Amino acid sequence: MYILENLEPKKVFMFFEEISRIPRGSGNEKEASGYLVKFAKNRGLEVIQDAYHNVIIKKPGTKGYENSPPVILQGHIDIVCEKNQDTIHDFEKDPIKLIIDGDFIKADGTTLGADNANAIAIAMGILDSNDIPHPPIEALFTSEEEVGLNGAKVLDASSLSAKRLINLDVGPEGQLYAGCAGGMYTTVSIPAEFEKPGGGYKAFDLKIRNLKGGHSGALIHAELGNSNKLLGRALDLIKADFDVLIASVSGGAKTNAIPREADALICAPESDTEKLKGLIKDIDVIFKNELRISDPDVTLLLDEANMPERVFSKKTADAVLMAYLLIPSGMIAKSLDIEGLTETSTNMGVVVTADSEVLFKNSTRSSVKTRKNLVGRQMEALASLLGATVEFGGEYPAWEFNANSHIRDVAMKTYESMFGEKATVTATHGGLECGIFAEKIPGVDIVALGPTAYGAHTPQERLSISSMERTWEFIKKLLENLKD
Which of 17, 78, 144, 461 is catalytic? Predict the structure, then answer.
């Protein structure tokens, strides 16, 4: 039984639901990749699968399009696995529980995975069709996009003949993307020294809750609350007034998602309990006031807890607090070329207390490589001052604007003829695989687009049903118009 069976286009939403039933968090794409291979073989289509679970499916052009230049339809298999704390869901084995809510599809307490199931479903709809005019299709489905575009990086592009590519990993509807930021991950590691807490202390869980969170590229400009940064600030304010010990800190689930929740286990003199509770209320008021527009539901909580066996030494606690305060997070520079576009940013996505270190995991993005490199150097300098180390990884290139794009021009004309208004040509601060494909496929002409969706990388993710249908009709017409 299909929850989406009454939605149009029927086959596209059927494929969307089928892929949603398969767990496919980054690094766990084997089953979903196999599903795509089986789909292709059942239809007699040429299929290539590599050791990294990337899949290429080829379909000849339809009648009259046999000799047209081929087109790549591209999206990624993996999803960001985020859920609410009270949601029982195992992303390693449980299917996404889909819900229809008016014009939207959403999930029950987890990320929906429309990022990027919409691309998979649309491409499968084209591959499955027998009545849609189109050039030869090379459908490309990549792995581990959400953790550094890893599948695209290792892809052997020699089996791709097309020089035209439609990326289906960005929206909203009505916008055609012609560029994206490059990025990298940085992990600042602070060596952790511990000691036993003295007598007379009481333990508390300090919590940040009820933030919206979101995609650290698409929403970094929105001034949403970052739970990790807020937690660090709260700890600093508390330590200024009380002899507080810190046992552990944590927050966030994914480096490329603006974190919604964060926690610290602290110990305060039992005699200061009421005063501490009063300060927590005061800080909560401060946060609510500062975020009254962007994140008004932010909440700072203090609950009693069991006493820990160990706490950070003063040296470690001081270094952790300085890292919270000094590691940049948020928009660093805006583009002066494209109005409203963030040029450079960093997101403090995950904080973890491990056995012998405290890790601050950050995602940096920039459409200017030298600015991205500068942020990396700043991380190195900060780590040096804190007696910490910094590790770099997941670097990917920016997709630079191409002033002369035939596929974008055809997409513009197609959109205007269908909807009676011009599409907007823009760029995204999010990371797309287009920059990698531009390097791997010399001379490739790329346009990126997708349906309207909200809340990517959060349990609030939702996909517009009507926009998905219009995007499907647009893709069909665009392929028809790409005969030459």
Answer: 78
